[in-house]
Every structure is written in C-alpha cells, then in structure tokens.
From TrEMBL:
Domain Peptidase M20 dimerisation: 226-317
Cofactor(s) demanded: Zn(2+); Co(2+)
Pfam families (UniProt xref): M20_dimer, Peptidase_M20
Organism expressing this protein natively: Salicibibacter cibarius
UniProt entry tagged with the keyword Hydrolase: yes
Family assignment from sequence similarity: Belongs to the peptidase M20A family.
InterPro entries xref list: ArgE/DapE, Bact_exopeptidase_dim_dom, Peptidase_M20, Peptidase_M20_dimer, Peptidase_M20A
Record's protein name: ArgE/DapE family deacylase
Stored Gene3D superfamilies: 3.30.70.360, Zn peptidases (3.40.630.10)
Length: 427
C-alpha cells in the first residue's frame, strides 16, 4: 500500500520521540484523579498555545446545561477543579477533507493502595521498554500521541486541510460528563478518535455502565423490639443475589457483537462500608458498584430489574423483609453502543494502521465504557477508540508499551493526513 503521509512527517515523529516521552512523563506526574484535573489542564492548555499555536478554549462543565440530555449521568460532586480544554486549528475556507477531533481524558482513577506499587505511582519510571505509573496508559500516553502526531505534521511544514481539534476532557472515569458538555457546546466534527489503550485495535462495540448504591439498615424502627442484627452479615445475602444476577445476565442470549466473549457484562462491588468499632454490631452498611449492559439495552430496564432482583432476595430473609434495602443510582448512566466498522471513517483508520504497521487492521469489543458513545449515539458522528498497548488499568503498576506509543503516534498522523487532507502550513 502506498503511503499517503509525507515521509517528512514520519521522520519528524522519530526526531521528536525523546521530546514526546518527556512530555508523557511530565503529564503523568500530575495526580489528576477525577475531580482534580485543573492543574494538568492548565499545563496542557499552555502547551497547546505556546508550542502548537492553537486557539484554546477552557471551560468548566455546567451540569444545568446537560442535565436533560439523554446521555447525562447524575454526579454527586462538582466540577470546580475540572476544566475542559479545547484546542482548535481552523482549516481552509474550502476544506479539502473532513473535520476531525482527537479527544482524550486526563482524569485517572485512584492509585490506592500505593504501598503495593513497585514505585511511586506519580513518578513514572521506565523498565523493559515500558513506562509505569498511574494513568500512563489510561490514557496519558494516548493524549501524548495525539498531540505529537499533530506537532509532527506542523513541524514538517503541513497543516490539516479541514477543521481539526484536540479535546482534553474530564470526569470520563465517573460519568463522561466532560465529553458530553464539550459536544453540547457545539465542539463537533465529521469524525472523532479516542486513544484508549486497547492494543492498536479499533473498537467496534462497547458495553454500557450503570452505578448503583445499596443501603442496608438493620436497626428496626420498632423501639419495642430489643434485638440487634449485624448489617455486614445481612449484606452477604445481597452480594450473593448480585452474583446470581450477574450469572443470569451472561447466560442470556448475547448481543451479536459480544457473542464470542464468555463474560461480557459484569457486576463489580467497588466500595463497601459498615461499622465503626470492632466490638459494636454494625446496623448500617453501604455498598456501591457497577453493572454492565449491552448496546440497545435500556438503562431504566436494567435499573428496574436489578432493584427487583435485590428486593426479592431481601424478601426471603426474615429480617430484611421487614426493612428492605434502599437501592439508588448515581454516576455512570452510560448506554452501550455498536459502531459501524465498515464506514469510511473506519476504513480510513484501517488504511492508516496498515500503512504504518504493514499488518491487517483488527477489531476489538470492549467490556468497558468510553466517551465514544456520545459521538455515535447522540451526535451522528463516527468515532472509535484506538490506542497503544498497556496493562493494569485501574490496578497496581499500570504500564504502557513505549514502542506502541510511537506506532500509534504515526498511525494518528497518517489518519489525520488522510481524513483531513494536508496543505502547506503557510498557504
């Protein structure tokens, strides 16, 4: 296959490689856990202005503006420390290609327990061709690749032949409201690429995600009954019920995109709290978790079924039947989505992949959710995830393979050059 990307751009990526790794290392030092992204966003905004001469807008997501959007997820937190950064490069008056968004999220999950890491999660280190640290794979390596793909293009004397944006968004790990607020403000394009670290394979489908909270209270309101029941012990009944519900979901007929995946939809209990003293019997317990759902599956239907499943289990218990658990939902209310992987957008990405790697393009289906859903479901915009190879996302000793970061940078540059077209920078 003949390459579309001018050779000078590929050479520039090689020349800028050390600088690219230093940039990745620098942004990975920011402890940008969800809700505390502002300092890193200021750094990225300054870089896009000073180094790439892009037109940058920064704003704080306004919940009131998106609360009625079908893709909205209800947060229990504010966005005072969560700026979104939009960097724009206008194309020519008469574009020669299609407009494009590179979008990545800067928020990361907690590294706790940090004592189990091989090194400080906020001081990225190199070992055996990999970089280790919280967020290096998910997804600061991808953000770095998309920035340096564009930097290589302009350094080689070219610019996109259509409108181009780099979007650095927030709160992807809890709601996706940062990406939704961005699109709701009108920052859209003809296609979008998100650099999630799934091993240089384009995602063709992903599950949805719904967060739930279950409150268990075993303190009977009838003061005439002098009996204490352990809420932790009663919680085991609820956990068992959730495990049975998860088993049922995966025994049902699968969505076509997930038919080869043995266990595509999970229930994860991520938080549990009960009691305050070893010699006291806890009478209150709270568990929080996440349930997956297929593309096309109704969030409200899953809410209803999960609630009924838990309450039916509680009703079989002589104590919980008197005071049923309270089930509520917060955070992620994300629908699943299937992409059209035969579209011109995917075919252009396939061409870019095959040009750079000299290997056939592959597909991936995700048992997790990403911001790609907003583009495909609500804005009629083709979008997918394609990023470097990494591991231990949301776990101890997260890592990213550095060779794959360079490969992805070249694929992004190739993809941009084909999708937008390229013109001389000073034309």
């Amino acid at each position: 296959m003949d390459t579309i990307i001018p050779n000078p751009i590929s050479q520039k990526i090689d020349e800028l490689w050390t600088e690219e790794i230093v940039f990745l290392q620098e942004i990975s030092r920011f402890p940008s856990v969800s809700g505390k992204e502002k300092a890193l966003q200021a750094y990225i905004a300054d870089y896009l202005i000073s180094e790439l001469n892009m037109d940058v807008d920064r704003f704080t997501p306004d919940i009131k503006e998106i609360a009625n959007h079908p893709g909205f997820s209800p947060p229990e937190w504010g966005y005072e420390e969560s700026d979104v950064v939009i960097a724009k490069q206008a194309g020519p008056t008469t574009p020669i290609g299609k407009s494009l968004i590179f979008q990545g999220h800067v928020d990361v999950v907690s590294p706790e327990p940090t004592s189990l890491w091989s090194s400080d999660p906020w001081v990225p280190i190199f070992r055996d061709g990999k970089m280790y640290g919280r967020g290096v794979a998910d997804m600061k390596a991808g953000i770095t690749a998309m920035i340096f793909a564009y930097k290589a293009i302009i350094s080689a004397g070219y610019k996109p032949g259509a409108d181009f944006m780099i979007q650095s968004v927030v709160d992807e790990e809890r709601t996706g409201n940062g990406a939704l607020a961005t699109l709701n403000k009108g920052y859209t394009a003809d296609g979008a690429l998100i650099p999630e670290p799934f091993g240089l394979k384009a995602a063709k489908a992903q599950v949805g995600s719904l967060w739930f909270r279950i409150n268990i209270d075993t303190a009977l309101k009838d003061k005439n009954i002098n009996q204490v029941v352990n809420a932790v012990e009663r919680s085991q009944l609820i956990i068992s019920a959730l495990q049975e519900y998860e088993k049922l979901m995966n025994e049902r007929p699968k969505h076509d995109a997930f038919k080869d995946m043995p266990h595509p939809v999970d229930i994860n209990i991520g938080r549990f709290h009960a009691g305050d003293f070893p010699s006291n019997v806890p009478v209150k317990a709270v568990m929080e978790g996440r349930v997956g759902l297929y593309p096309g599956q109704s969030i409200n239907a899953v809410k209803k079924e999960l609630r009924e499943w838990v309450l039916e289990a509680a009703d079989e218990d002589p104590w919980l039947s008197k005071q049923p658990p309270e089930i509520t939902f917060f955070g992620f209310h994300a629908e699943g989505v299937e992409m059209d992987d035969q579209s011109p957008f995917f075919k252009t990405l396939d061409d870019a992949h095959e040009t750079v790697l000299q290997q056939p393009a592959e597909r991936n289906v995700l048992s997790s959710t990403t911001d790609a859903r907003f583009f495909n479901l609500y804005y009629d915009t083709p979008a997918t995830c394609y990023g470097p190879e990494g591991g231990n996302f949301h776990e101890i000793d997260e890592w990213v393979d550095l060779d794959s970061v360079k490969q992805v940078t070249k694929v992004y540059a190739e993809f941009l050059s084909q999708w937008c077209g390229l013109i001389p920078r000073h034309s």
